[in-house]
Write a structure and sequence with these properties.
295 residues; alpha+beta; 6-stranded mixed beta sheet; 8 helices; 31% helix; 26% strand
Length: 295
């Protein structure tokens, strides 16, 4: 544990930054973490303590944990979860201080309703400490960042370089099927109906959607069996770079915890009873994120 105090030149708005480097010490602040999670703009499964514990269980080898807790008046104002890990770059292997994510579609960042203050205090803390990293990479920040990260890095003296690492598809379902077709016109609707009729066949094609409420499911063993069925398909796309045994254990953990948190959204496509494709998603606050899929 490392502590430091931050404030302006007049000593007002003093913030204390406490750094946690052992995953087991975070359980003591689970209730506060959960409360801050529900106040986080654009929060997702990746912002939960449960995700960090799963990440650390499967990827901790060769990594160092650096979770920064920003305190004000004795209360945790915000949390910035970070890890130091080895990454291969054009100049060789370097130690990178970054968010605990495994795919570019996973967005992370400060946790709590004061993300700007949390990020600025955390980065000032990092700037004042001896560096155990070569590169500070705060990527996968998502659309809710709105320039916050770049501004905070500049103010902390890091002089950031922004890079677009890729793109992520986003679909908005804010209108009903009928509303969408009303705007497209009768000719298009008729064409859709014709295609639907042409696609009929003797085969039985069914979509099963499993979304238990409040972590309730009739049979947890059945849920584990469904995960094994998904793993029998081609390797899940989000875990393609992992060994098969690590992919299996990771998917089991992710589905189990998402189920317990009431965030599970598992979709199974069956042809004549045989699983041919799946999509494992997590949902929170009306937003759906895909974590893995296979066919």
């Amino acid at each position: 544990v490392d502590c430091g105090w931050l404030g302006d030149q007049q000593g007002r708005q003093m913030l204390q930054v406490v750094e946690i480097n052992a995953i087991e010490h975070l359980e003591a602040i689970r209730l506060r973490w959960t409360s801050l999670f529900y106040d986080t703009p654009g929060a997702s499964y990746i912002h939960t303590l449960d995700w960090l514990k799963i990440y650390w269980r499967h990827f901790r080898d060769g990594q160092r944990l650096r979770v920064l807790l920003v305190h004000r008046s004795g209360t945790v104002l915000g949390i910035l979860p970070l890890v130091v890990r080895h990454e291969l770059t054009a100049v060789g292997r370097v130690d990178v201080l970054t968010y605990p994510t495994i795919h570019r579609s996973q967005f992370c960042g400060p946790i709590g309703q004061n993300p700007t203050a949390t990020l600025m205090a955390a980065l000032r803390h990092l700037a004042s400490r001896t560096r155990d990293w070569d590169v500070l990479s705060l990527g996968e920040i998502g659309e809710h960042d709105r320039g916050r990260t770049a501004n905070a890095l500049n103010l902390a003296g890091f002089y950031p370089h922004e890079v677009v690492s890729g793109s992520v598809s986003k679909v908005c379902f804010d209108r009903s099927w009928d509303e969408d077709h009303a705007d497209r016109g009768a000719q298009v609707v008729e064409s859709d109906s014709d295609r639907a009729g042409e696609s009929k066949s003797p085969s039985d094609l069914r979509l099963e959607r499993i979304r238990p409420l409040d972590g309730q499911h009739d049979d947890n063993q059945l849920l584990g069996g469904l995960v094994e069925e998904c793993l029998s398909l081609q390797r899940p796309i989000s875990f393609a770079e992992l060994p098969a045994e690590k992919s299996a254990a990771l998917l089991h953990d992710l589905v189990s915890v998402a189920h317990r948190l009431g965030m599970l959204d598992l979709n199974l496509l069956r042809l004549d009873g045989r699983l041919v494709a799946f999509s494992f998603n997590v949902h929170f606050d009306g937003v759906l994120h895909q974590l893995a899929a296979g066919a």
